[in-house]
Write a structure and sequence with these properties.
Chain lengths: 370, 382
C-alpha cells in the first residue's frame, strides 16, 4: 500500500513537472506554432502575458512598438527560414511623450524604446539577439531618446543586441542607458552588442549612495557622436570594460571611453576618434590598443590611475594630463609609437618604464594638448 | 709562458672591437666609443657588416640604400625621440628599383637590396615620411621601405607615413623573386596616409604593407601588431592580387589594427598558399572589404566592425574561416563560389546578409544574431 501511494505521488509530481513544460514556449510573430507554443502578436502583449522568468522567442520581423518590461524575463530573437532579425522600431501612430524620468537629473525626461522598470518579482531582464532601431523617433522638447533603458532597481544581461539610429533627443540619443538610484545593487552585463549611429553608445551611471556593478564586454561601436562608452559615478560603481572595439566618433566631444569609478578598462581597441580613453577616479587602464586618435589616454584629475601595457600609435598626444592633471598611479609598460607628444601637459618628474618610438617631443608642460 | 700568451690574446680580442661597436648618425652621441656620421647614407656604407647604427632625433632628407646586414635604430636624445627620413627636395626623384613581382618602377626611400654578405637588415624606431614626392603614378610607385629580392630582416616599431605620390604609394613593400627563401617580419609599426584614397589607384596602386613573391612562394612574411589607418588600399597583405602575375607568400597577418580605409579598399588581402590571418581588428571601411582570402588561407579570430564586406573568400577550394566576430556589416561572409573549407564558430551580429553569393547547403555551426537575410545565392553581395 505504501508502494502504491509512492507511485501515486510520483505521478502527481510528473504532472506537476510536465504541465508547465507544455507552457514554457512563448512566441511573438507567428513563426512558431503548435500546441507547445503560446503565441502573441506584439512584444508588448507578451511581456505582460507570460509568467515571471519566461523566455519569449521573437520571430524575425518589424515590431513598431514601445515596450515596457516590469517582470523578470528573457527576450530572444530567433531565426525563421532565411531571416534572423527582429527589429523594434518607431510606432508612427504612437505617443512621443516621455515614459521614464532619469534619476540623474540630466535632461531627465526620456523616451525609451524598450524600458525595464519596477520589475516585480525581483529578477533579471535579459535581451538576446534583438535589434532596436531609433530611426524616425524625435521626441522633441526636452526629452532624450534611448534604445534600451534599465531604470533604478533593475538588473540583467544584454547580449548580441543591435542598437542603432538613436540620433535625436534633447541631450542626445543613446543606444543603451543604465542607471541606478535605488537601494538595491544593480548588476548589468552588456556584451557582444553592435551599436552605431548614436550620440551616446552605452552609458551607465548611479546616483550615490546607490551601487551598480556593470560589465561591458565585447561590444563593437561606431559612428557615435559623444562618449561611446561612459560609466561614471562619484562612488558606487564597479566592474569592467573589456574587449570592446570602439571607433569613429565623428564629432569629437569627449573621450570614446569615459570612466569614473573602480573599473578596469582592458583589452579594448579604440581607433579613429579624437580622444581615446578618459579615466577618472580609481580606474585602471591596461592592455588597450589605440590607433589614429588625437589624444590616446587623457587623465582628467588627480587620483591614482594605473596605466599599464597599453599600445598607442598615430596620435598627437599619447598620454595627456588634462589641464595639468596629476596622477600618482604607476605608468609603466606602455608602448608609444608615432606621437607628436608622448606625455603632454605634464610637469612632474620624468616618466620612465615605458617604450617610446617615433615621438617628436617626449614630454611637454604646455597646455592644452595642441 | 703559454698561460701568459693566452691572457694577452684574450684582452686584445675582446676590448678592441668593443671600442668600435658604437655607430651614430646626427651628433647626439659623442665620445671616443662612438664613430659619428652626418648622414644615414654615409652610416650604412661606413660601418662593418652586422653593426647597429643609432640614429639621433632629427630630419634626414635622404634616399638610403642598404647593401649589407645591419640594424638602423632610432634613439632618444633629450626630449626628442623621432628620426625622420624625408624626401630630399634637391634629390633625384627617378625610380631606383623595379618590382620583380609586379614589374613596376619604384622610388624607395629606404631600399634594402643586394645585401652582401648575407644577413638580416633590421630597422627599429625610425620614421619614413613620403611627403614631397609628387612624381605621380605614371612615373613611379613610392615606397617608404622596400626589401628587394633575396633580402631578409625585421622592421619593428617603425612609422611609415604620407607615401601619397598622387595615389601610388606604399608604406612598406617586401618581395622576393629569387629561388632561395627569404624571411621578413614587420611588426608593431604605425602605417598611415598612403595613396590618396581615389578608387582608380586602389589595388596594388597604394596601401600599407605589401609582401609578394613569385611562384613557387619563397617569401615567408610575418605582419604582426601593426596599426594602420587611412592607407590608400590594402593595408596588410600576404601578397597583392587583382593581377595575373603570381604573387604568393607564406606566413601570417596577425594582431594588426586596421581602420578608416577609403571606400572600396580592402583591409587585408591574402592571396596565398598558406597565410594565416588571425587576431586582427578591422573597422571603419563601411563600403569596402575587410579580409579577402584565397585558397589555402585561414581567417581566424579576427574582429570586424563597420565593414561593408567583412570576409570575402575567393575560392572554389578550401579556405578556413573560423571564430571570427563580425558586427555591423552589409555582407558577413561572401563567397566567390563554393568553399569546402570549414566555416565554423564565427559570430555575426548586425548584418544585412549573413552568407552572400552562397549556393551550397545551409552553413551550420556559427552563431547569427540580427541578420536580415541568412543566405543569399546570387552573384555579388549587393
Amino acid at each position: 500500500m505504501s508502494r502504491n501511494l509512492a507511485w501515486f505521488f510520483s505521478a502527481v509530481v510528473m504532472l506537476a513537472v510536465s504541465a508547465p513544460l507544455q507552457a514554457l514556449n512563448y512566441e511573438v510573430g507567428g513563426c512558431k506554432t503548435g500546441s507547445s507554443y503560446v503565441n502573441f502578436t506584439t512584444i508588448s502583449a507578451a511581456v505582460t502575458g507570460v509568467p515571471a522568468g519566461a523566455t519569449i522567442q521573437i520571430c524575425p520581423g518589424v515590431y513598431p512598438e514601445q515596450v515596457t518590461i516590469t517582470q523578470p524575463l528573457t527576450l530572444k530573437g530567433i531565426a525563421s527560414g532565411n531571416a534572423n532579425r527582429a527589429v523594434i522600431t518607431f510606432n508612427p501612430n504612437g505617443n512621443l511623450a516621455p515614459n521614464v524620468t532619469s534619476v540623474l537629473g540630466l535632461g531627465s525626461a526620456f523616451y525609451a524604446q524598450v524600458l525595464v522598470q519596477n520589475v516585480n518579482p525581483a529578477g533579471s531582464v535579459n535581451f538576446v539577439g534583438i535589434t532596436v532601431d531609433g530611426s524616425g523617433i524625435n521626441p522633441g522638447g526636452s526629452t532624450n531618446l534611448a534604445g534600451i533603458f534599465y531604470a533604478s532597481g533593475t538588473s540583467g544581461t544584454i547580449n548580441e543586441v543591435t542598437a542603432r539610429n538613436q540620433t535625436a533627443g534633447y541631450f542626445g540619443g543613446f543606444g543603451i542607458w543604465v542607471e541606478n538610484g535605488s537601494s538595491t545593487n544593480d548588476t548589468l552585463t552588456i556584451e557582444n552588442n553592435s551599436l552605431h549611429n548614436q550620440v551616446g553608445g552605452i552609458w551607465a551611471q548611479v546616483q550615490p549612495p546607490s551601487t551598480l556593478t556593470t560589465t561591458v564586454n565585447g561590444n563593437f561601436l561606431s559612428n557615435i557622436g559623444g562618449n561611446e562608452i561612459l560609466i561614471a559615478a562619484n562612488s558606487g560603481i564597479s566592474g569592467g570594460i573589456s574587449g570592446n572595439v570602439v571607433t569613429s566618433s565623428p564629432y569629437g566631444s569627449g573621450p570614446a571611453i569615459f570612466t569614473q569609478g573602480a573599473l578596469v578598462v582592458s583589452g579594448n581597441t579604440v581607433a579613429d576618434v579624437s580622444e581615446g580613453i578618459g579615466p577618472f577616479f580609481a580606474t585602471s587602464v591596461k592592455s588597450n590598443k589605440l590607433s589614429n586618435v588625437g589624444t590616446g589616454i587623457q587623465f582628467q584629475c588627480c587620483e591614482a590611475v594605473p596605466l599599464a601595457s597599453n599600445t598607442i600609435m598615430n596620435t598627437v598626444c599619447a598620454i595627456d594630463f588634462y589641464g595639468g592633471a596629476s596622477s600618482s598611479g604607476p605608468i609603466s609598460g606602455n608602448v608609444i609609437n608615432d606621437a607628436q607628444y608622448g606625455f603632454a601637459e605634464w610637469s612632474g618628474p620624468t616618466i620612465t618604464g615605458n617604450s617610446l618610438y617615433n615621438v617628436d617631443t617626449i614630454q611637454t608642460t604646455s597646455s592644452p594638448c595642441p | 709562458m703559454s698561460r701568459y700568451f693566452g691572457w694577452l690574446f684574450t684582452i686584445v680580442a675582446v676590448s678592441a672591437p668593443l671600442q668600435a661597436l658604437n655607430y651614430e648618425v646626427g651628433g647626439c652621441k659623442t665620445g671616443s666609443s662612438y664613430v659619428n656620421f652626418t648622414t644615414i647614407s654615409a652610416g650604412v656604407t661606413g660601418v662593418p657588416a652586422g653593426a647597429t647604427i643609432q640614429i639621433c632625433p632629427g630630419v634626414y632628407p635622404e634616399q638610403v640604400t642598404i647593401t649589407q646586414p645591419l640594424t638602423l635604430k632610432g634613439i632618444a636624445s633629450g626630449n626628442a625621440n623621432r628620426a625622420v627620413i624625408t624626401i630630399n627636395p634637391n634629390g633625384n626623384l627617378a625610380p631606383n628599383v623595379t618590382s620583380v613581382t609586379f614589374g613596376l618602377p619604384f622610388y624607395a626611400q629606404v631600399l634594402v637590396q643586394n645585401v652582401n654578405p648575407a644577413g638580416p637588415v633590421n630597422i627599429i624606431g625610425i620614421t619614413v615620411d613620403g611627403s614631397g614626392d609628387n612624381a605621380g603614378c605614371s612615373a613611379e610607385t613610392l615606397a617608404g621601405i622596400f626589401y628587394a629580392s633575396s633580402t631578409s630582416g625585421t622592421v619593428n616599431e617603425v612609422t611609415a607615413r604620407n607615401q601619397v605620390n598622387g595615389g601610388c604609394g606604399w608604406g612598406i613593400w617586401v618581395e622576393n623573386g629569387a629561388a632561395s627563401g627569404e624571411t621578413i617580419t614587420i611588426e608593431n609599426s604605425s602605417v598611415h596616409n598612403q595613396g590618396n584614397g581615389s578608387f582608380g589607384n586602389i589595388g596594388f596602386g597604394s596601401g600599407g604593407i605589401s609582401a609578394s613573391s613569385l611562384s613557387p612562394p619563397t617569401l615567408a612574411a610575418t605582419i604582426r601588431g601593426n596599426f594602420f589607418s587611412n592607407t590608400g588600399g590594402d593595408a596588410g597583405l600576404g601578397g597583392p592580387g587583382g593581377d595575373a602575375i603570381l604573387s604568393e607568400t607564406n606566413g601570417e597577418v596577425s594582431e594588426n589594427v586596421i581602420t578608416s580605409n577609403p571606400q572600396f579598399a580592402t583591409s587585408i588581402f591574402a592571396y596565398c598558399p598558406s597565410v594565416v590571418v588571425s587576431g586582427n581588428t578591422v573597422a571603419n571601411n563601411s563600403s569596402g572589404f575587410g579580409i579577402e582570402i584565397y585558397p589555402g588561407c585561414t581567417a581566424e579570430s579576427n574582429k570586424l566592425s563597420n565593414v561593408g564586406y567583412a570576409i570575402v573568400a575567393h575560392s572554389y577550394a578550401a579556405t578556413t574561416i573560423k571564430s571570427n566576430t563580425i558586427k555591423n556589416t552589409l555582407c558577413g561572409i561572401s563567397f566567390g563560389g563554393e568553399s569546402n573549407g570549414p566555416i565554423s564558430g564565427n559570430t555575426l551580429n548586425d548584418a544585412f546578409y549573413g552568407y552572400a553569393n552562397w549556393g551550397g547547403p545551409p552553413i551550420g555551426g556559427n552563431s547569427l544574431y540580427n541578420v536580415d537575410n541568412v543566405q543569399f545565392t546570387t552573384d555579388y553581395c549587393p
